[in-house]
Amino acid sequence: MRAMDFELSPKARDHRDRLQEFMEARVYPAEPVYAAWRAENDPHALPPVVEELKAEARERGLWNLFLPDVSGLSNLEYATLAELTGRSPDLAPEAVNCAAPDTGNMEVLHMFGTDEQKERWLRPLLDGEIRSAFAMTEPEVASSDATNITTSIVRDGDEYVINGRKWFITGAADERCKIFIVMGKTDPDGPAHRQQSQVLVPRDAPGVTVVRHLPVFGYQDQHGHSEILFEDVRVPVSNLVAAEGDGFMIAQARLGPGRIHHCMRALGMAERALELMCRRALSREAFGGPLARQGVVREQIAESRMAIEQARLLTLKTAWLIDRHGAKGARTEIAAIKVVVPRIAHQVLDRAIQVHGAAGVSDDTPLAAMYSWVRAMRIFDGPDEVHVRTVARQELRRHEN
Ligand SMILES: Cc1cc2nc3c(=O)[nH]c(=O)nc-3n(C[C@H](O)[C@H](O)[C@H](O)COP(=O)(O)OP(=O)(O)OC[C@H]3O[C@@H](n4cnc5c(N)ncnc54)[C@H](O)[C@@H]3O)c2cc1C
């Protein structure tokens, strides 16, 4: 077995340096511009600065970094870059065309799409011309167990007819979102993991209604987390992704890389929080000196640094395993980091907010929004408990006779 080596390759270092420069020169200065524009406009309207950043990132060769077959970067190499983008989560991932849920949807189309599906949907997604959503979760059933999904996909001649209600579908409020990948059941009486299929549903298909956009701790994401009703929606059978019954398998294939990408970005949020915490502690005076002189604050800073380093090492190991053995071979580690990283990022953000006092809960710093996001991360792409179950199962298996 080759030794794990987390030294950055020359290619990754070059990308990191250029991305860092882009973040400092363009992305951080765009944050207040983005926030001010949104404060004055519909929460789901697109601030012009987003497309400006995309154009500039592409020109700089910082584009589609997430997809190894396109970027030539391994998952390990991408980890450092994704972490950097996580420092400005509203702007940087999208600027470099590496934002969820498009990344997962592009991976699905790349892996399973027909030539026609790739031409119609993957190409404009890779070009950043459109956006997309992945519709699996349903309000009426516990969707962390995907076998519960009830949306029906019924074949009728050359078409599929789709009926069901989804919610928390990220991206559906954005006017650029043109395509949904919808998970439903084509064979409700089949074996539990072969009942599901995924179909491509254009957003403007008759029978699709975007009902409302759900807030996360009161925040309305620009792209939206939407409730969507599908009523007798018809799509051609050529819109099926892979084969009937492959829906569960595709969901697994999609969520593996998606989960690690979320973790990489969460590390970036934790790093930025720690940086802000230190700066604040050094500059804010209370009880005769800077906060940074208080032992209790120093301890929180040290605990945060130690926890981030542990979380990063496990994330890098997981990326390394995916590069060698695929997402399936790294299943246990992916489950583990999906629990560990949001938990640690959440703790670090909590401490950073505390050190900032009232400013920490305001929107004068990015801390409160990041805090709400990493808290939600402990639920989306599978709640902690489901991943803990996977880790326990693998651990026990090693000791069974
Ligand atoms: C911000 C955000 C964005 C999202 N984006 C999308 C999206 O784009 N597309 C999409 O399809 N979905 C999306 N989701 C939905 C998300 O993936 C689901 O909420 C998640 O899978 C959990 O499903 P559920 O809400 O139905 O919870 P349930 O399945 O009802 O679970 C509720 C709770 O039960 C507990 N639980 C569940 N299973 C176990 C177990 N085995 N052992 C012990 N306890 C357990 C956990 O504490 C869990 O949180 C998003 C959610 C959020 C918050």
From TrEMBL:
It comes from Actinomadura mexicana. Its cofactor is FAD. Pfam families: Acyl-CoA_dh_1, Acyl-CoA_dh_M, Acyl-CoA_dh_N. Residues 245-394 form the Acyl-CoA dehydrogenase/oxidase C-terminal domain. One of its GO terms (molecular function) is acyl-CoA dehydrogenase activity. Belongs to the acyl-CoA dehydrogenase family. This is Acyl-CoA dehydrogenase. PANTHER family: ACYL-COA DEHYDROGENASE FAMILY MEMBER 11, MEDIUM-CHAIN SPECIFIC ACYL-COA DEHYDROGENASE, MITOCHONDRIAL-RELATED. GO terms for biological process: fatty acid beta-oxidation using acyl-CoA dehydrogenase. One of its GO terms (cellular component) is cytoplasm. Keywords: FAD, Flavoprotein, Oxidoreductase. The lineage of its organism: Bacteria, Bacillati, Actinomycetota, Actinomycetes, Streptosporangiales. Homodimer. It comes from the Bacteria. Residues 11-129 form the Acyl-CoA dehydrogenase/oxidase N-terminal domain. Residues 133-233 form the Acyl-CoA oxidase/dehydrogenase middle domain. The keyword Iron does not apply.
